[in-house]
Amino acid sequence: MSKDSATPPDPVYYVVSGAGSDIRTGEFANVEPLTLQETSFFADQGGFVAVVIKGNTMALHVWADRVATPAYAVDVTLPT
């Protein structure tokens, strides 16, 4: 199905290939402690980031090897 024929219309999707690949232990050393516990599973895993832009929100879905669903997701409010 193309985006033009989808009902209701799909948001815009982008896939950023290679993002998250070859992440090394300690890569997130400067991350806030509450977020750090959520990122520890990324060490030594390949993956990618899927970006969904809808309205004034950009959702980042981080996919990692050996994880069947997005390993991490965050919504970013875009400037208007």
Protein described:
This protein is mostly beta strands and 80 residues long. Helices cover 9% and strands 35% of the residues. The longest helix has 7 residues, at 33-39. The protein has one helix spanning 33-39; strands at residues 12-17, 47-54, 57-64, 72-77. The chain is globular. The protein has one domain (14-77). It has a four-stranded antiparallel beta sheet with strand order 1-2-3-4, with no helix packed on it. The relative contact order is 0.22. A hairpin with a 2-residue loop joins strand 2 and strand 3. The protein contains one helix and four strands; from the N terminus they run E-H-E-E-E.
Based on secondary structure, the structural category is mainly beta
Order of helices and strands: EHEEE
Cα-atom radius of gyration: 15 Å
Task: Tally the beta strands.
Answer: 4
Mean pLDDT, all residues: 67
Kindly report the spatial arrangement of strands forming the biggest sheet: 1-2-3-4
Q: How many domains make up the 3D coordinates?
A: 1
Main beta-sheet annotation: 4 strands, antiparallel
Q: What share of the residues lie within helices?
A: under 10%
DSSP strand (E) fraction? 35-45%
Spans of at least 5 consecutive residues whose pLDDT stays below 50 are: none
- How many H/I helices? 1
Our measurement of the CA-to-CA distance between the termini, rounded to an integer number of angstroms, reads 30 Å
Shape: globular
